[in-house]
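Practice problem 4.
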């Protein structure tokens, strides 16, 4: 991985909210510092209040870009996946977050951009542009992309059908894709609830998969999405 060198931001004359909404964002030491402090506090909270257990961290690649793919039942999911990464990876991990939800109000923009370093992803429009942006991120060794292929949090706790975007992103590319299963998030913080409840949360990280030999195309995208969906469902069954 290339040595990291700090360069002053080129958008310092822009307003704070505009700078946070922009992606990719310019380096900002103040934001980096706040993100690091928030990560330490959140990891401590997850370990104590939610008794977070993480299994399979040995599967995380050490020196190349990769994608974490997981089921989605709670806002805790992103925090748990980020907690599985080394702190040195914090500013190079980018959870794909719904642009129409997380980047429309100032409080959500602050949490998305500062705390979790989210990438604004178009769910209804600009989907292709969002996928291209994800591809560019993964071309830079050492970046981590976090994706929830269901597209939204489950309203019942059951896993929904994976959308083919994840397949379109990784088909024909030498990128490690790690299926992940999150258990307990729906119970402690279901969709529609404002606050979390005490309860145990568990994250299992599976072995990396690679789809470099699969030619890109609509059929391939659907096949890959279905394979990852089944892999995570299998992890859910195995962890009972």
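Answer key:
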């Amino acid at each position: 991985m290339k040595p990291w060198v700090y360069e002053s931001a080129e958008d310092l004359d822009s307003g704070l909210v505009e700078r946070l909404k922009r992606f990719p964002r310019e380096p900002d030491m103040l934001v980096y510092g706040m993100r690091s402090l928030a990560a330490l506090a959140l990891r401590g909270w997850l370990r104590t209040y939610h008794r977070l257990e993480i299994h399979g961290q040995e599967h995380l690649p050490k020196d190349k870009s990769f994608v974490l793919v997981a089921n989605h039942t709670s806002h805790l999911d992103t925090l748990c996946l980020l907690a599985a990464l080394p702190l040195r990876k914090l500013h190079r991990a980018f959870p794909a977050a719904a642009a129409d939800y997380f980047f429309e109000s100032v409080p959500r923009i602050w949490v998305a951009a500062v705390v979790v370093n989210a990438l604004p992803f178009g769910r209804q429009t600009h989907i292709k542009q969002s996928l291209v942006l994800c591809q560019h991120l993964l071309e830079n060794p050492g970046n981590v992309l976090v994706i929830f292929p269901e597209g939204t949090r489950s309203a019942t706790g059951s896993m929904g059908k994976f959308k083919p975007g994840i397949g379109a992103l990784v088909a024909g590319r030498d990128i490690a894709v790690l299926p992940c299963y999150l258990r307990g998030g729906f119970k402690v913080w279901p969709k529609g609830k404002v606050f979390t409840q005490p309860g145990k949360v568990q994250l299992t990280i599976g072995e990396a998969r690679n789809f470099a030999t699969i030619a890109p195309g609509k059929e391939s995208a659907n096949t890959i999405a279905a394979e990852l969906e089944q892999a995570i469902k299998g992890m859910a069954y195995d962890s009972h």
